[in-house]
Design goal:
The chain is of the alpha/beta class. The chain has helices spanning about 1-15, 20-25, 45-50, 85-100, 115-120, 130-140, 145-155, 160-165, 200-210, 215-225, 250-265, 280-295, 325-335, 365-370, 375-380, 385-395, and strands spanning about 35-40, 60-65, 75-80, 105-115, 170-175, 240-250, 270, 305-310, 340-345, 360, 395, 410-415. It has 16 helices and twelve strands.
Length: about 425
Amino acid sequence: MRDLLETSFRTALEATDPARRVAAEADRLDPPPTAVLAVGKAAGPMLAGLERAGLRLPGFGVTRYGHGVPLAHYELLEAGHPVPDAAGVRAAERALELARALGPKDHLLVLVSGGGSALWCAPWGLELEELQALNRALLASGATISEMNAVRKHLSRIKGGRLAQATRARVTAWLVSDVPGDDVSTVASGPTAPDPTTFADALAVLERYRIDAPAARAQLERGAAGELLETPKPGDPLFARVTNRILLANADLLEAAAGFWRETGWRVLLLSDRFEGEARELARFHAALVGSARAYGFPDRPPFVLISGGEAAVTVRGPGRGGRNQAFLAWLAYFLGPEGVWALAADSDGIDGNSEAAGAVLRPDTLARAAELGLDLRATLNRDDSHGFFDALGDLVVPGPTHNNLNDLRVVVVEP
């Protein structure tokens, strides 16, 4: 069963290859683009897709360290993620410089994927070190991606539609979405999209999660008081020359995984691509479905496979390692108890939280095996060390960089 679970993950990734999708769509660009910028964990494959289609344009890309791919024509830079660094600042400045140099007759193609918010940071009103500290606090706070990006957009000169605002060219943005609901203003903090959030919204996020960031707070307060220019909003005339289009999304990943399981003879319940919230509560929900299915045949009678996506969050309180997918599985084991399941939860970019794993595999005998090794699941959860738990069991999923970013895949095999 473990082989089936991991094969379903690999199959779903292969079916949603960004290079193949970009190459297939490139000849539909009208008018042809005159320049290109790419940002995010899928920047390399997206530029490779342009090369396959024969497009050799001025421009460059930036991706996370270790996520580069060989390219014949395009330069692909690497920078820090999830915490931005100086290389990301330089990449953002260079992107803005290219955009500003284009005229009304030009057509700028922007290839955007998840991770772009850190890779194009362009701090505004605070120093890089202060922005780095803020990002660490946000990542550990349990805030949703939309909440985090509301803050990031208002502390950047490139996010929240400001890249589109910086150029006179026509802009077409193709997006590989890693956010629940595929909101184009949230993917990579929406560099080419209208921003419905405000400085006041960003301040509210800091208040809600009790984040101590004096420099950021001061900048946001100036903006909320009307002393700074807001991000361009929906209805702004500048977006008449901007097209934002989702090329691939979490739903495509889930459908591909569902197709794999159906072909192997399993019934599939495809839940949702829009789950958000604490990994603990998401695990509680999935455990409840498993329990009711086994007891009452609702929502279906086993055997069948549950598939879901979206992006959980973890409010970090302990010193351990992990990620939202490993935490989800650890909590699922906790809520199910001895009546366990086979399950996989993994991040499609190959990196889950602060670990080298994409996620892990849960087995029906996980708790029994953990007891034999002297592992205390509850203590693991209190330390936020799901990575250490699954590492000790040999149940991590470690594919390395996948050069994609379509959010999470969760597969739960419900047997009688």
